[in-house]
Design a protein that fits this description.
CATH class: Mainly Beta
Strand order of the largest sheet: 1-2-3-4-5-6-7-8-9-10
CATH superfamily: Calycin beta-barrel core domain
Largest sheet: 10 strands, antiparallel, barrel
Strand content: over 45%
Number of helices: 1
Number of domains: 1
CATH architecture: Beta Barrel
Number of strands: 10
Shape: globular
């Protein structure tokens, strides 16, 4: 398990985040995502501080690895009182994070300094998916 959790190291650091919605009305997101190892190195802590359509959204997410399911697990809480959980996996160089209602697929640039992807939503428990938001995260200078 220790080796698998280390795959999350590619996220470590501060990232300038920009998102553009794919549905009408178009929403935008802009801010900072920060990833750091939680003390002990068994979990990755992900903090979000973005403005979505002018409204500030802050969140805390903890990411770990479920050896039984052979999937990463993510637990998320935000400043509006929402919480959610999802799973994730890395295959063929792409990361996918998913639940029954949302899914995101992301790929790092060759130099590891940019992460691009798309979030999708489902209203039928994951049978069909609609693109929701395109994301670009650019690693801030002087971060690991």
């Amino acid at each position: 398990m220790e080796n698998v959790i280390r795959q999350l190291g590619v996220f470590e650091g501060a990232w300038r985040t920009k998102g553009t919605g794919r549905q009408e009305p178009v929403i935008t997101a802009e801010g900072i995502d920060t990833y750091q190892w939680f003390p002990g190195g068994h979990f990755m802590e992900h903090r979000v501080d973005v403005k979505m359509d002018g409204e500030r959204m802050q969140a805390l997410e903890m990411i770990g690895y479920d050896a039984g399911k052979q999937l990463f697990f993510l637990q998320f809480w935000n400043n509006t009182g929402q919480m959610s959980s999802m799973h994730g996996k890395m295959e063929n160089g792409s990361w996918t994070f998913f639940s029954d209602t949302e899914r995101g697929t992301f790929t790092f640039s060759e130099d590891g300094k940019q992460l691009t992807g798309t979030w999708e939503t489902s209203r039928d428990g994951g049978k069909t998916w609609q693109p929701w938001m395109d994301m670009v995260l650019t690693k801030e200078e002087n971060t690991p």
